[in-house]
Amino acid sequence: MFVSLAVVTVFMSALLLVSAGAKSLRTPHITEQMATLGVPQRMMTFLIGAQIAGAAGAVAGLRWGAVGIAAAIGLTLYFAGAVASHLRVGDRRGASPAAVLTVASVALIVLRAATL
């Protein structure tokens, strides 16, 4: 069970860091998507920080279970908010990846709780 947790944690952390990097570079695709969602530019720093903190917390959670569960709960809320934001503007295509990451975040909670 711990191996599954480690695999999901590494996968999620890598995705989070790539996404945070794309946001910090203000790539055109991300900038356009955020504008479509109505996310102000001043919120980008917060979103980047949340993704980096989620990745760090998930990795730290491999050693300290409570930290991992807290990080996974935060990531679940983050991605559920992303799903809601995409659906609010009628972007079903953009909501799909966020929904998958929401499910993966819930899987982190379940796996971490099962390995305590």
From TrEMBL:
Pfam family of the protein (one): DoxX_2
Main localization category: membrane
Mode of membrane association: Multi-pass membrane protein
Keywords attached to this entry: Membrane, Transmembrane, Transmembrane helix
Superkingdom assignment: Bacteria
Transmembrane regions listed in the UniProt entry: 44-62, 69-89, 95-114
Subcellular location: Membrane
Protein name: DoxX family protein
Lineage: Bacteria, Bacillati, Actinomycetota, Actinomycetes, Kitasatosporales
